[in-house]
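As described in the Methods, two query proteins were run sequentially through the folding procedure within a single session, without resetting any intermediate state between them. The first query and its resulting structure tokens are shown here.
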Amino acid sequence: MKKLKRLGVLLTAVGAICLLAGTQPVKATEKATIAEGVYIGNVNVGGMTQAQAQSAVEEYVAGLMDTTFTLKGESGSVSMTAQDMGVTADVNAAATEAVAVGRAGSLINRYKTTQDLKKNSLVLDMHLSVDKQTTAQKLYKDSDKLSVAAVDNGLVRENGAFQFVKGKEGVEVNIVDSVYAINDFLADEWNGTNNEIALVTDVVEPRGNEEELAQVQDLLGSFSTDFSTSSAGRAKNVTNGCSKINGTILYPGDSFDMAKTVSPFTLENGYELAGAYQNGTTVESFGGGICQVATTLYNAVIRAELEITMRFNHSMLVSYVQPSMDAAIAGNYKDLRFKNNLDAPIYIEGYCSGGVIHFNVYGKETRPSNREISFESETVSTTDPETKFNLDSSLPIGHWSVGQSAHTGCVAQLWKIVKVDGEQQSRDLFNKSNYQASPKIITIGTKGANKETLAALKSAVASGDENTVRSAASALKTEEQVKQEEDDKKDQEDSEDSEDKKNDSKKDDSQKDDTKKDDSDKKDHASDNKSDNKSDGNNSKSDSEESSN
């Protein structure tokens, strides 16, 4: 009986020891192998050591790099490979967990795990994750493809009054939440075959409301310039560029980018070939004339006292505004940008009429009614242009043509003047502009000239005097050329005489009809004609000096 009791005590003690030991984790040796039936993700690691399992998983993950995942947003989807997203696996943690299967827990749990593995495999987490920063950057780059932009509440100006236009909700990708959704999908849901991942999106409400936009009532600044003497192509470019700006609404804090708004300068975007400044010369390019649009807008904006954040002057003077009042657009290095620094929205109205471009900036006037601002251009210094002569042996001897007219260079500055009740309160330097001089370029033909005549012409060119060069070039002309020019001149004069006779005949008929007009009418017409002649003179000057920019 005592022996039985002693045996029972011994067995109980041994059981307790075993139970105690069974509750402690068992440290695996380097040679310990993973139980059969254990998988890390899609990788069968049964029978492998921890090191072998790590290598197997690393090889598998390396093979995943070209796997493409479809990331679905509201309006579309984009594709990214595992490599694009910087997918990695924590192979050490996964292999450690695999080795521990069947070696941790109580004897009963170990036994159960061993028996379960004979029937069904055990799939462990591969601990996949993405590089969150890399994935976020790529998502941001493609976010426009995945989102539906909200249409802000807006305004239209009709018959001199503003009408409220209701906008629409938008949907945009939540970059941060989407990155975590991608990470969680790969870590917890991905089975190696389903490669579609739904991105997290947020509803975007349209900006502005009827009450806020109702503040836009007052004219804050306006400006106009004349382009009536422009070529058809340039005139179209001015009108087209103006139309792309018309109706712009800037909420407080918003910025405006001129180049971004009116580009690209292509035929498809409504632009035609016209003259533009390039490297001190005038060339034909799509969008020539867009700088007059920028200049007109610039002057309206500064009178509204919005914040100018970027402005460049032209390389050479333009004729449609005074020096330092211009704003140039060129490539990606010259632009006009400004910011709505006011507490209410602003509305930009732009239109063309009768060869004149107009810009009006509307908003909520908060400036005192007795405060007046103006801008004054000051020319600090001028640089006279040179005359360059090109001798061209491919053109007939004595040929004379002007390839480019001269442009005077100057340094100018713009002053902002503030008056209160008519008394000047301040006079501040607003900008400073440097315009380069551009030479007059004359091409002279020398084809067939002998050494003596060519030397004489070169000597005249060396003098730099245009009249001297012209005389020398004329002396090179053959008798046949002179006769041809005289014949051409006579033909032109005959044609003009014929046209004058027609006009005189029409004038006589018209005078017969007007004989009954009184002296008062004659006086009025004389005044009108005087005004018209003055206007024509200004336009003529503008046409001769104006670059198409």
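Immediately afterward, the second query was submitted; its sequence and tokens are:
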Amino acid sequence: MRVDVVYTGARVLTGPDFRPADAVAVHAGRVVALGVDAAELDARSRIDLGGAVVVPGFHDAHNHMAWYGMQLTALDLSERTCRSVDDVYAAVAKAAAEQPPGSWIIGSGYDQNKLAGGHPTAEGLDRVAGEHFVQLKHTSGHMCVVNSAVLRQLDLANVPTGGDVVRDAEGRPTGLLREQAQRLLDPLRYPVPLEDVTRGIALASERYLAEGITSVQEAGIGRGLVGNTPIELAAYQQAREAGQLGVRTTLMVAAQSLRELDHAPSDDVVFGLDLGIRTGFGDDWLRIGPMKLFSDGSLIGRTCAMHEPFEGEPDNRGYFQMPEEDIAETIRKAHRSGWQIATHAIGDRAVSVVLDAYAAALAEFPRRDHRHRIEHCGVIGDADVARLAELGVIPVPQGRFVSELGDGMRAALGPSREDHCYRVRSFLAAGCVVPGSSDRPVVDGAPLPGIVDMVRRRTSSGVLLGADERVSAAEALRAYTFGSAFASFTEADRGTIEVGKLADFAVLSHDPTDPETLDEVRVLATVVGGDMVFERSGDAGT
């Protein structure tokens, strides 16, 4: 047999246990042989990887690809550039000097927990950009700040349920719009032109491939807080047709994009997309994944739904994005109609409510392999960890949150609850399959730093957050490969390097399962469908 390509001179970590082999053969985009069997095959091309380590391509189970890509062209307000609210104002002032009056200035990535002076305000933005329209997006995506020019355009008397417009002691809007209140901007900013979304997808793809990412799950398209346009799927199709979708993509569909469907009385497909399209529709490159539902808000923004008040705020337990009964009914209808469901729930009260809804739906309409998910599952007690496993629900925490957001999360929870924050070891011990994910652009989305944080669990100030929730390097790698594939029903084709599976690999400088060299690992090359689509100059063989 003559195959397309044989990769040699490598330490290939194969199978579910990462057994080493020294070669991998690829034909028609899939692995056809490993080790000696691969090395002996006739091949059109042979590539010596020069002793590199080959692992399954990284798979980010929860990211915002289009948002991230479009953010790359926005004003960067992250900790990299802004350490105080005055730095934010200076960045906006500079942008205003470069743009004509009446134009929009969009900034992204600020975190009040890391800014001396806290949140920017409309008053402050007015001083530096009063003749422009300004929107500054919080790193969580769960709030934003606008200036007075924008506020004057908003229907502040009709704030959507599940959000609020923050006001000062005199009752004046500060410019801070939280959760669903951001929907007030829709008449001004929504829908985003497809061209802009497609460009964002292309830019994100380039970054992802350079980080060894070969598959992603886009955490919400269409409508709601995560959607850019009601025809957002078209942007992904356009990107694919233009050769700009570099990574295999599973799309979560915002719950607001689903509707009641006409059906025969005997049918269970009662809710979803037109024609009954649901989870699983598509191919290896682009497919429909779960329905994405928001139950609550943000931990660092102190808007997620908690059983007990946030530290230092005795009257604040957060809130839900919609009435609890609506959460349950939406889950019920989507489950009955065959959807996998991915529900955003960060606060422990939200997690409990979502688990109740999943349990009720499963009791009424039993389904053995549903793989419903709780996105983030940020704060959860032991009893709900056990319930999570019993129900077969997949928790989707973000390891990188510990490093970048951990100090803010600790401040919000206080010492008595911080060990229940973004758990991983407890999920594994209970028998859950845990995927790896970033929630990018909320934090740095590169998988290797995410893996390090799952192992080390150190906040940016150096505090060990939840020592008992640390996992081994091999377990973290398995999360970012097999775990994420399982969470998207694609483990038959990806997640491990095995004969018959898609030939998607990350080529690394060191073994990521070795904790001694974990900090030294870097991506040398990325292979998708057997083709080397990224190569760091001078590092991988040709």
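The longest strand covers residues 42-56. We note this only descriptively and draw no conclusion about the first query from it.
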